[in-house]
Amino acid sequence: MNLEERLAHLQWRKVCNDSQIQGALKQSKQLLDRDLLLNATEAKDTSKWVRKVVQDEITKPLQISMEQYEQMMKENEIESDALEKASLVHARSVSAIQAKMKEREEHAKRLRHYRKHKKILKLDNN
Questions:
Q1: Which domain of life is it from (predicted)?
Q2: pLDDT of residue 103
């Protein structure tokens, strides 16, 4: 084999190697794309599964013991009593404020009436 034949052979091997490298790169890109698609599909499936499990658990009746039920009812009654007391205090406060406002309005009305008559008397005396 002479030098030219060897160079031609090496050139041919180089082209073959480049072709194999390009093929391997293309194949790895295709595998990566397919993996991404599969991962996205699996993520959607997992998300659907989680939502389904949560929905199933929400629709099931809550199972508690009689002691827990009685404790919840007791807490509910205590809370209701506290709210009732708070609403009574609020109602008393509102009625007290309304009474004070009415009293002040009447006082202001009497004061205006007094000043008006005082002014009239003052004008009559002059």
A1: Eukaryota
A2: 97
